[in-house]
Amino acid sequence: MLKRSQYIALVLVVLFILALFSQSDRTIARMKVAIGGLFLPLFGLARSAQTVTDRSLAALTPRAELEKQLEALQRENQELRVEAARSQETQKENARLREAFALPKLVPWRLTLAQVVGHDPANWWKNVRINRGSRDGLTNNLTIITPQGFLVGRVAEVGYTHSQVVLLGDPACRVSVLVESTREHGIIAPSESGPIDNTLVDLKYLSANGVLQPGQWVRTSGLSGLYPKGILVGQIVDSRSVDYGLHMEARIKLAARLNALEEVMVVWP
Amino acid sequence: MNSINACLVLSATLIVVFLQSTAVGFRNIVGAQPDLLPSLVVYATLTSGLGLGTVTALCGGLCFDALSHNPLGISIGPLFAVALVIERYRGLILRDQSYAQFITGVAAGAAAPALTLLLLLNTDRTPLVGWSSLWQWGMVALVSGVFTPAWFLLFGWLAGLLSYETMPDPATPSNRQIKRGRN
């Protein structure tokens, strides 16, 4: 049997939890933002400490190493310039053909850089926090990619200065994709290997007669309307027939390294 | 409730939640993010009773859920349950012994996430659970067990630094001899 004071504490806590659960989603979201705001100075402090450490390390890098890096970057820059010029020609040709066939014009994406400032402390969600919020114009369901252009996930909750991004492999992040070479459509779902592995996801609901080979690239199909078409998701590792041959499933190795996210890009459609 | 101890525990609660959100080294190596809140609740309840245990569960649960995708308030119940059970059997737990602290920490670290998951499965959200969750569960319980005696050491040391040193009463020295008799 509990003592009287323990009963009082129990009743008070239960009433508090019930009061929280009875609030509307909007109120709860505001409360989350308010409580999360307590940690903003700590997030800022952590960011500043990291910047100072990075600068100190950069100052310690020997001149010869920096010159080598500069040379490599200059070479890469030249190659990218040539590639950009070539892709500009392709874009123009694409625009001319779209006009000729009366297809709607492709709208180029607008990108905003954001820094990853935190991860979900719980083991059963795959989420990260980024330092962009409604102050920067973010809204729910905006696509998030890495600076290299690989799909990361989508914005799930927006605060004033920070937002929560749900990552690929979370049950709340299902993406309609297609296999680049065969144009087979499927849905990205959490991996059956569980929450530990951040590199693999499952590609489900592929047609039974699809030809799937390891190494084939998978991109967003644009069918869901949430994610723009053509964003690289990953590569097929292996495939198997499921549900007595009714359809196929494949394991996808994600192109984005979700364990090592530091900067991401918000895609504005 | 000792006010210095309460302040230290509540400050530690905020720092622990923040670190769990930002430090991902352990998660990248072992595959599980340690949850230190149950061990803090164990420490708070064993040293200061249900009052501080409840406040730690409330603050820790709210902050944890605010930085997580969890529904706000869902972690409070399991943490409070840990505090309530420990308070109920407080007299039977050898709270000065490190092994008892470790075992209590392991039990709390195993119970809190399991209860939270149980509650989550009854909401509209689908948590990511698989066979590897058992490994995560074991690691979280183990880390919680390791940290419980560590909290006792850390807070004992900090309380010693921040509080006045207890001086012996000069009027009654401990080596005083009481002579009885006529002489």
What would you note in describing this structure?
The complex is a heterodimer of chains A (269) and B (183). Chain A has a domain at 109-269: Beta Barrel (Thrombin, subunit H), CATH 2.40.10.350. In chain A, 33% of the residues lie in helices and 29% in strands. Chain A has four helices and twelve strands; from the N terminus they run H-H-H-H-E-E-E-E-E-E-E-E-E-E-E-E. Chain A has helices at residues 4-21, 25-37, 40-60, 63-100; strands at 110-119, 127-130, 143-145, 151-158, 163-167, 175-179, 185-189, 200-207, 217-220, 232-242, 247-254, 263-268. Chain A has a six-stranded antiparallel beta barrel. Chain A is globular. The termini of chain A are far apart. With 183 residues, chain B is an all-alpha fold. Chain B contains seven helices and no strands. In chain B, helix 1 packs parallel to helix 4, helix 3 (37-48) runs parallel beside helix 5 and helix 3 packs across helix 6. Chain B starts with a helix and ends in a 21-residue tail after the last helix. The model of chain B has no long low-confidence stretch (mean pLDDT 88). Classes of the chains: A alpha+beta (269), B mainly alpha (183). Chains A and B meet through helix 1, helix 2, helix 3 and strand 1 of A and helix 1, helix 4, helix 5, helix 6 and helix 7 of B.
Features:
heterodimer; A: 269 residues; alpha+beta; six-stranded antiparallel barrel; six-stranded antiparallel beta barrel; 33% helix; globular; B: 183 residues; 7 helices
Q: Fill in the CATH topology of the domain at 109-269 in chain A.
A: Thrombin, subunit H
Low-confidence stretches of chain B: none
Mean pLDDT of chain A: 88
- What's the overall average pLDDT of chain B, rounded? 88
Distance between the termini of chain A: 60 Å
Amount of beta strand of chain A: 25-35%
DSSP E strands of chain B, number = 0
Integer tally of domains of chain B: 1
Structural class of chain A: alpha+beta
Helicity range of chain B: 55-70%
CATH architectural type of the domain at 109-269 in chain A: Beta Barrel
pLDDT under 50 segments of chain A (min length 5)? none
Given helix and strand content, the structural type of chain B is mainly alpha
- Find the CATH superfamily of the domain at 109-269 in chain A: Rod shape-determining protein MreC, domain 2
**Largest interface: pair, residues per side:** A-B, 50 and 53 residues
Percentage of helical residues of chain A? 25-40%
- Work out the number of β strands of chain A: 12
Shape descriptor of chain A reads globular
